[in-house]
Amino acid sequence: MLLLSTVGPRVSELVRANVEDFYTNDGVRYWRIFGKGGKTRDVPLPGVVAQALEAYLAGGASGDGRQGVAVVVAGAAVGAR
To answer: How far is CA 18 from CA 48, 63, in A?
Structure first.
């Protein structure tokens, strides 16, 4: 919810986000968002969002990089529809 409310992606973009889509460059955490029409954009994350993401990933969400960031209680990735 924090990503959705602070960064403002489309819900479909959030649902498609994988762990590998988040990276750090020069100490700044970015999210590479794959949007409509095959366009990508790299969005810097606010500090509080980057810290929350780091805590989430430290809790075991890293996997092989293809694991979805948006998950349900059962641990399965959320689908776009």
So the answer is: 19, 10
For the stretch 44-61, pLDDT in tens is 999 998 998 888 888 765
pTM of this prediction? Answer: 0.71
Bridge pairing between strands 28-34 and 22-25: antiparallel
Half-sphere exposure of 72 (CA within 13 A, CB side): 6
Cα R_g (the chain), whole angstroms: 12
Question: Which tokens sit at 12?
Answer: 């479909």
Q: What per-residue confidence (pLDDT) applies to 22? A: 92
C-alpha to C-alpha distance for 59 and 49, rounded to whole angstroms: 15
